[in-house]
Give the backbone structure.
Amino acid sequence: MIKFYLFTILTALLFYACSYKNSELYDNNTKSRFQIRYDSLHQEIKLYSDQLIKSPKNIDFLVKRAIAYRRSEFFFKALQDINKAIELRPDSAALYNERGLINFFSENYDDAICDYKKAIKIDSNFVNAYINLGVTYGSKRNFNSGLYFLNKAIELDSNNYEALEHRGCCYYNLFNIDNHIQKAINDYKKVIEIKPDYAIAYFHLGSAYLFNYHYHEALSYYDKAIELGLVHEDLKYYHDIVSNEINKDRIYHEKIDQYTNTINSDTNNIDAYYERGMLYFKNSDFQKAYDDLMKYIELNNNGDKLKEAEKMSRYIKCLIEEENNTK
């Protein structure tokens, strides 16, 4: 089943796409744009380094260079700068939050969590720290804890599209809980209401609808993400999956209509009942499949497919009973 196949990919994909690696340096997927951003960051590092030679205890320059180091993935140097800044200003929630980001990007998730919690202890209304905690717990696949902190952020700022987006990703990954996929969809839709040009949210929406087999809705949101210029390595792949499923569905209904028209013209056309029944079976429409095969058996005394039809009808009957027992 496509849902089972997609879950293993989409769950990892969606939370990664929601992480900070979707922004900042990582939002540029072409080499030329990446290089431009990389060169710019190195220019910033040089500028702040020159300033720090003159003023080695200037917190502002230390923090700005730490951010530039972080975005350039020089995490050790970023930590050195932010630690100096914290020594100079140990009561700053923003500094602990920044150190948390550095630890997050270097995948020291437990240290990041400690830093974000220190930031919240200093400032209990620090929305970004709650969001960062939610994202970090999500990256550890502790989605319930992620939800807890993202809900805290949303309590403080109900229109924070980043918190809503990340909460949607947590809901998505908790797909086995009732209504959580729908809750994810609701969050992504609210993100779009707040920020209509936020392309990644359309991608998430498409993936949530794909998970529920709603191919036409999925395709419309994937199309919108492409229209908005989203560059994502998995977008084309899932767009193609949805397009193929829609095409298969169209062909399926065309064939069903063809056999139905044949039966309407000739109610004793046994081959049409058999072929339509097998199509229904392949599409998991078991009751209709059973009815058509039983009609074929009723009309057919010695056809070459009679034994196969009898065998299939018994099997499908078991499937119907199994479905009824699970309701």
Summary: The chain has 16 helices and no strands. Confidence is low (pLDDT under 50) at residues 1-32. The CA atoms of residues 145 and 273 lie 54 Å apart.
